[in-house]
């Protein structure tokens, strides 16, 4: 896997959060690039301050595209909506946006014929084709793409499968074939966890866009938290992950991550009950 792409990987025994490098646009003709071009050359965490503070942007919009077939049942649709609701609650809790946070109604995009495996180049091409909105005026914009397929980073021999990744500074992809392959009782928590975790990377956690106030990075698995109970931990302990999934509760952001967010200009959510 490339070096700077931030991914959630499911293994048969564990879940692991990895990172690597996204593909970029070939358009380098403008010294002041349009937002679409600027985003294509950005990395997760590059717009952390724009997301956390109201210095430039006082509100956030979230654009969501869902590929045909990605939500095959009513249960899948419910889990998807719950994940977006939880994301919205976290954004309101962590980001200083007096203008509010709005998740736009999702749009359905066509599924490519006879294609269920997607490369980072495929994901970039789909975003370029179907994404409608980038940051504008006083509004910062995030983009989620929910695919009806799996990632080419999956490794059947090793028993690993990528659930989702953040690949540009405002862009995230979730592989719903991989989510939907899990037991029905586990899918809602898995989908919430990957959605919120990737958003955490866009906020610059851990030490990847905003500085740490107290050392709490995991040097073996950057850029992640060293607290096994934190949302930003690399969940390499299968039993710990399964305990979260079976309990129906997603991990909290720990106090060190919340302190980093507050120090960078986000809201101080330490001591508050976090969404679940």
Would you give an account of this structure?
By secondary structure, the chain is α/β, with parallel strands linked by helices. It is built from eight helices and ten strands. Strands 1, 2, 3, 4, 5, 7, 9 and 10 form an eight-stranded mixed β-sheet that branches. A two-stranded parallel ribbon has the order 6-8. Strand 9 (160-168) and strand 10 form a beta hairpin. The longest helix has 21 residues, at 74-94. The radius of gyration is 17 Å and the shape is globular.
- Number of structural units classed as domains: 1
- Describe the global form: globular
Number of separate strands: 10
State the CATH topology. Collagenase (Catalytic Domain)
Overall mean pLDDT stands at 88
Q: What is the first-to-last residue Cα distance?
A: 30 Å
β-strand percent reads 15-25%
**Helical residues, percent:** 25-40%
Count of runs of 4 or more consecutive helical residues:
8
**Rg of Cα set:** 17 Å
Structural class: alpha/beta
CATH superfamily: Collagenase (Catalytic Domain)
- Report the major sheet: 8 strands, mixed
Low-confidence stretches: 12-30
What's the helix-strand series? EEHHEHEEEHEEEEHHHH
Using the 3D structure, state the CATH architecture: 3-Layer(aba) Sandwich
CATH class: Alpha Beta
């Amino acid at each position: 896997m490339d070096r700077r792409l931030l991914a959630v990987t499911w293994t048969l025994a564990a879940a692991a959060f990895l990172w690597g490098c996204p593909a970029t646009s070939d358009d380098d003709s403008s010294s002041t690039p349009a937002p679409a071009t600027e985003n294509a050359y950005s990395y997760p965490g590059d717009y952390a301050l724009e997301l956390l503070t109201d210095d430039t942007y006082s509100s956030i919009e979230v654009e969501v595209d869902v590929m045909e077939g990605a939500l095959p049942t009513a249960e899948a649709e419910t889990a998807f909506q719950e994940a977006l609701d939880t994301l919205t609650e976290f954004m309101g809790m962590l980001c200083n946006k007096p203008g509010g946070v709005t998740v736009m109604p999702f749009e359905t995009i066509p599924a490519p014929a006879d294609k269920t495996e997607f490369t980072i180049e495929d994901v970039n091409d789909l975003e370029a084709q179907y994404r409608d909105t980038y940051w504008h005026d006083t509004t910062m914009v995030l983009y989620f793409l929910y695919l009806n397929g799996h990632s080419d980073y999956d490794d059947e021999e090793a028993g690993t499968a990528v659930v989702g990744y953040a690949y540009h500074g405002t862009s995230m992809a979730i592989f719903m074939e991989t989510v939907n392959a899990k037991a029905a009782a586990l899918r809602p928590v898995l989908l919430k966890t990957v959605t919120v975790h990737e958003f955490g990377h866009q906020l610059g956690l851990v030490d990847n866009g905003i500085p740490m106030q107290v050392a709490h990075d995991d040097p073996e698995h950057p850029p992640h938290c060293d607290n096994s109970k934190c949302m930003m931990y690399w969940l390499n302990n299968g039993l710990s992950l399964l305990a979260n999934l079976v309990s129906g509760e997603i991990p909290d952001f720990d106090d060190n991550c919340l302190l980093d967010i507050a120090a960078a200009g986000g809201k101080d959510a330490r001591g508050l009950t976090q969404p679940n």
